[in-house]
Each structure stands twice: as C-alpha cells, then as structure tokens.
C-alpha cells in the first residue's frame, strides 16, 4: 500500500485549479491597478487641499500629515496585494503594519481636534480621551503582534 502515499493529489473541483489561480491573479492585478490609481488621486487631492486650506498653520499642516498617512496606508495595501503575486499568500506582518499606521493616524487626528477646538463639552472631551487611550492600546497590541510574528518567523527558520 505504499503506492497510495506516492500518488499525486487528484483534483476534485469542477474547474481546474490553474484556471482558478489565473482568474484570481487577474483580479488581484485589477485591484492593484485600482489601488495605484486611488493612491495617485489621493496624492493630487491632498496637494490641492493643502494649498487651499487656511490657515496653513496648524490646520493645513495637520490635514497634510493626515492625508499623507492615508496615502501610506493605500500604498501599503497595494504592496500587500503585489506581494501576493510573489509569495502566493497574504503576509500577516503587512496587515499589522497597516493597522498600526491607521491607528496612529487616528490618534493624530483626534489629538489635533482636541488642540484646535476651543470649546469642547466635557462629554466630547472625555470621549476623545477614551478614543486616544483605546487607539494607543490598539497600537501597543499590534506592535506586540508584529513582535510575536517576527519571533515566530525567526524560530521557524
């Protein structure tokens, strides 16, 4: 019965796997192209908004940093989709990094709104502080997850 272990895996799907992979690769290529176009559009829109925002300091600068971090998130997602072609799988580390960038972006946005808004109700201020604390915990958890993921990769290799 040693022949049973030597036999190749028999394909049981209706559509051959090579065609499913081809369709999946085409779809990922379309998604990558769409993300690239969105990134370019976001860049030009950010430049336009940066020029038009008054006053430039601090509103324009804060908005510019927020927009840049949004573009970085788009590019990281694009990089993740592209790496899917080379590695054949989505990599956990890349999604964790995207999460860290998104949480830090939100921390900066909430922090900026706290400093720019002259009058905030006690409830709105308390809510913003909870948001900052929760996002800080999210960043810590994601960085810890990145550390664990990298440690697992080191121990594997």
Q: Give a short account of the largest sheet.
A: none
Strand content: under 5%
Count the E strands.
0
Number of domains: 2
Textual characterization of the structure:
- This protein is an all-alpha fold and 157 residues long.
- It has helices spanning 2-6, 17-52, 56-87, 92-116, 122-156.
- It starts with a helix and ends with a helix.
- The model has no long low-confidence stretch (mean pLDDT 88).
Summarize the structure.
It is built from five helices and no strands. It has 157 residues and is mainly alpha-helical.
List keywords for this structure.
single chain; 2 domains; about 160 residues; 5 helices; mainly alpha; about 0% strand
Topology summary:
Blueprint (H helix, E strand, L loop, with lengths): L1 H5 L10 H36 L3 H32 L4 H25 L5 H35 L1
Helix pairs in contact: 2-3, 3-4, 4-5
């Amino acid at each position: 019965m040693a022949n049973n272990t030597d036999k190749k895996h028999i394909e049981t799907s209706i559509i051959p796997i090579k065609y499913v992979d081809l369709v999946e690769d085409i779809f990922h290529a379309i998604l990558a192209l769409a993300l690239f176009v969105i990134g370019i559009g976001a860049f030009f829109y950010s430049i336009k908004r940066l020029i038009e925002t008054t006053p430039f300091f601090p509103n324009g600068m804060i908005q510019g940093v927020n927009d840049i971090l949004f573009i970085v998130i788009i590019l990281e997602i694009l990089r993740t989709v592209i790496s899917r072609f080379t590695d054949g799988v989505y990599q956990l580390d890349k999604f964790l990094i995207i999460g860290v960038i998104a949480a830090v972006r939100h921390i900066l946005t909430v922090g900026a709104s706290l400093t720019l808004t002259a009058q905030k109700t006690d409830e709105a201020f308390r809510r913003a502080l909870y948001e900052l604390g929760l996002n800080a915990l999210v960043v810590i958890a994601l960085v810890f997850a990145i550390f664990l993921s990298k440690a697992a990769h080191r121990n594997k290799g």
